[in-house]
Specification:
A hairpin with a 2-residue loop joins strand 7 (113-121) and strand 8 (124-131). Helix content is 6%, strand content 35%. The protein has one domain. A five-stranded antiparallel beta sheet has the order 6-5-4-7-8. Strands 2-1-3 form a three-stranded antiparallel beta sheet. By secondary structure, the chain is mainly beta.
């Protein structure tokens, strides 16, 4: 795995990466307005309050948009070629990869239910999403 694919934690993102290493998806929630948001920052993106905290979320999402990368960069061939924007059940959108499905538009229906999974990238773990199984009530690992 190429080093440029390994995410780097910062003080603002450390709880996100620690959660991913534990197999849980964490994002921030504002205690002033109650909204969840992503990407990590010190203040709420909606009301600008600094009264924010990290919370574990459901890991359920819906496919909002995607592209299939047919010409991967050298060193990225092992990654899913499906690069997607997913909308978390809690509201925020997240850029990620879709795994566990053949990279064909016939298999990638917009608004399809997804569930979080995690895969290693170097010495870090990143959240990815896969189609939700129809028999799963929980939706998380």
């Amino acid at each position: 795995m190429s080093d440029f694919l390994t995410p780097k934690a910062t003080p603002e993102t450390a709880p996100f990466w620690a959660g991913a290493a534990e197999g849980v998806l964490r994002i921030q929630q504002c205690d002033a307005c109650g909204r969840h948001y992503f990407y990590p920052r010190r203040f709420c993106r909606y009301c600008h309050s600094t009264d924010v905290r990290w919370t574990t979320v459901s890991g359920r999402a819906r496919l909002d948009s995607y592209t299939i990368n047919h010409r991967p960069l050298r060193g990225t061939e092992s990654l899913s070629p499906v690069i997607a924007l997913v909308q978390l059940e809690e509201g925020p959108r997240m850029l990620t990869n879709i795994v566990g499905v053949e990279p064909d538009p016939a298999n990638l229906v917009l608004d399809m239910p997804l569930t979080v999974d995690f895969e290693p990238r170097g010495d870090m773990t990143v959240p990815v999403f896969r189609p939700a199984s129809t028999g799963s009530a929980e939706g998380t690992r």
